């Protein structure tokens, strides 16, 4: 194997015990959970890769910040530290804390989207798509075509298809496009990065038609690191310089800070123009849905930790190690002939379940099949990023056919060691060897009307 594991740029000073149940116990637990990984108790999971959101290990400085947090209801010192950090890193005039990313979407999207509007993105993740639809609008994806071929290696498979985007704008009419969202990195496409040039091109089209551009910034630091490695213009730039260049192109950003800011809870809204007419409606909606503007649904200790995490997530030594973990696991899969969205993305490895289970149609949810098999095999909890997650058409209620059938191994930051990554690889190899024995997937017996994969009940399809 050509790729070596990158040594951790930190020491471990606290541990949390975990245990692996027996195979029989795991089979019983997933059945009791109605074959939905979200229904499993955390104590019954050995390696938890369900998400990289809020599952990170905070640093000694961040834990010290937790103790220093100012819990004043209005105008706490921790709030001002966070706002100062946000303005410094992103060079935006207004920073609004909220409790997480979907809260940022709920607060912001309601000011610009409504019935009859559409929103366009390189790819909407499930919760973002849901918040577009909850406003009465419709979400349209415009990722570049190379992203749809997991085997094809390209440096920026997360990019927006700008020509397609402009065609959709003209089809619906610019006045009916409430928002363009560019997600960095592109989660649904496999954690794939977006180039600065692509952001510039998207921004130019938005400016041409007077359409607001929002950056979904959950993994902005990982995206900036890929740009430094792959975009010639920025090879000598700092991560912070790259971040400022990206965000200068947009009008606003929404962020789940539970990813690249390495915290357990938090989110942000940023508005570039300090005099924007959007700011007062955002403050009003924040007070209604989240809490007073200077805490936004967060405790003072959360605000303090987030102010520190914004900077820690930009550290190049940490980012080299972070991306190196993905490259190590991907290299082991390469050796075993296991397909994934390549080159590997920033926050996880997206295994191509469709390629592993060629015998399974999309409506039997191969991504969910592999997720369940990983839990049975080694106590690893992951999730489907495919047709099961995509759900039903909001108008026809028919099952949608996703462009991908991935099983996402989302890696928490600073949590798992090389030995854990070897367990992941060994489990996938074992499943690949018996993949032909799986004749059918799963069917849904109950589902909620929106974001079904969090709660749905499934059963195996019998012969």
TrEMBL record:
SUPFAM superfamilies, per the entry: PLP-dependent transferases
Q: Which InterPro entries match?
A: ArAA_b-elim_lyase/Thr_aldolase (IPR001597), Beta-eliminating_lyase (IPR011166), PyrdxlP-dep_Trfase (IPR015424), PyrdxlP-dep_Trfase_major (IPR015421), PyrdxlP-dep_Trfase_small (IPR015422)
Q: Does the keyword DNA-binding apply?
A: no
Report the EC code(s) recorded for this entry: 4.1.99.1
Which cofactor does this sequence's record say it needs? pyridoxal 5'-phosphate
- Is Lyase among this UniProt entry's keywords? yes
Keywords (alphabetical) are:
Lyase, Pyridoxal phosphate
Instruction: Identify residues that carry N6-(pyridoxal phosphate)lysine.
Output: 259
- Which molecular function term from Gene Ontology is one that the record holds? tryptophanase activity
Question: What is the uppermost EC class here?
Answer: lyase
> What residues form the membrane-spanning segments?
none
- Residues in domain Aromatic amino acid beta-eliminating lyase/threonine aldolase? 48-426
Family that this chain belongs to: Belongs to the beta-eliminating lyase family.
Q: Which PANTHER family match?
A: BETA-ELIMINATING LYASE-LIKE PROTEIN-RELATED (PTHR32325), TRYPTOPHANASE (PTHR32325:SF4)
Protein name (database record)? Tryptophanase
Species this chain originates from:
Pelosinus fermentans JBW45
């Amino acid at each position: 194997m050509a790729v070596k594991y990158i040594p951790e740029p930190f020491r471990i000073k606290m541990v949390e015990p975990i245990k692996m149940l027996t195979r029989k116990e795991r089979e019983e637990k997933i059945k009791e959970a109605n074959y939905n990984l979200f229904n499993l108790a955390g104590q019954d999971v050995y390696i938890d890769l369900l998400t990289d959101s809020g599952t990170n290990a905070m640093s000694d400085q961040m834990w010290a910040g937790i103790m220093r947090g100012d819990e004043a209801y209005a105008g706490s010192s921790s709030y001002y530290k966070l706002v100062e950090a946000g303005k410094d890193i992103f060079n935006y005039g207004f920073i609004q804390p909220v409790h997480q990313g979907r809260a940022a979407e709920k607060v912001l999207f309601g000011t610009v989207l409504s019935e009859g509007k559409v929103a366009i993105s390189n790819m909407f993740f499930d919760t973002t798509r849901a918040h577009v639809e909850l406003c009465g609008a419709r979400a349209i994806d415009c990722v570049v075509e190379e992203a749809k071929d997991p085997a094809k290696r390209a440096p920026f498979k997360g990019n927006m298809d700008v020509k397609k985007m402009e065609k959709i704008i003209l089809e619906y009419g610019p006045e009916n496009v409430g928002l363009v969202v560019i997600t960095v990195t592109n989660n649904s496409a496999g954690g794939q990065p977006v180039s600065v040039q692509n952001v510039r091109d998207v921004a130019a089209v938005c400016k041409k038609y007077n359409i607001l551009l929002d950056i979904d910034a959950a993994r902005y630091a990982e995206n900036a690191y890929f740009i430094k490695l792959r975009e010639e213009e920025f090879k000598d730039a700092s991560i912070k310089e790259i971040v400022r260049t990206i965000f200068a192109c947009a009008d606003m950003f929404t962020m789940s800070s539970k990813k690249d800011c390495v915290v357990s809870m938090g989110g942000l809204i940023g508005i570039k123009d300090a005099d924007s007419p959007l700011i007062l409606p955002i403050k009003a909606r924040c007070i209604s849905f989240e809490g007073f503007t200077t805490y936004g649904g967060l405790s003072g200790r959360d605000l303090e930790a987030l102010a520190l995490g914004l900077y820690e997530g930009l550290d190049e030594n940490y980012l080299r190690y972070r991306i190196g973990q993905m490259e190590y696991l991907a290299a082991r899969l390469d050796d075993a002939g296991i397909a994934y969205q390549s080159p590997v993305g920033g926050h996880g490895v997206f295994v191509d379940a469709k390629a592993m289970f060629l015998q399974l149609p999309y409506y039997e949810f191969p991504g969910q099949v592999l997720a369940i098999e990983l839990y049975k095999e080694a106590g690893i909890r992951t999730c489907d990023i495919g047709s099961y997650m995509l759900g039903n058409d909001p108008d026809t209620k028919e099952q949608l056919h996703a462009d991908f059938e991935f099983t996402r191994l989302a890696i928490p930051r600073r949590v798992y060691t090389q030995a854990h990554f070897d367990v992941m690889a060994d489990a996938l190899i074992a499943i690949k060897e018996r993949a032909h024995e799986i004749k059918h997937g799963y069917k849904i017996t109950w589902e909620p009307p929106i974001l079904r994969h969090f709660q749905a009940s499934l059963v195996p399809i019998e012969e």
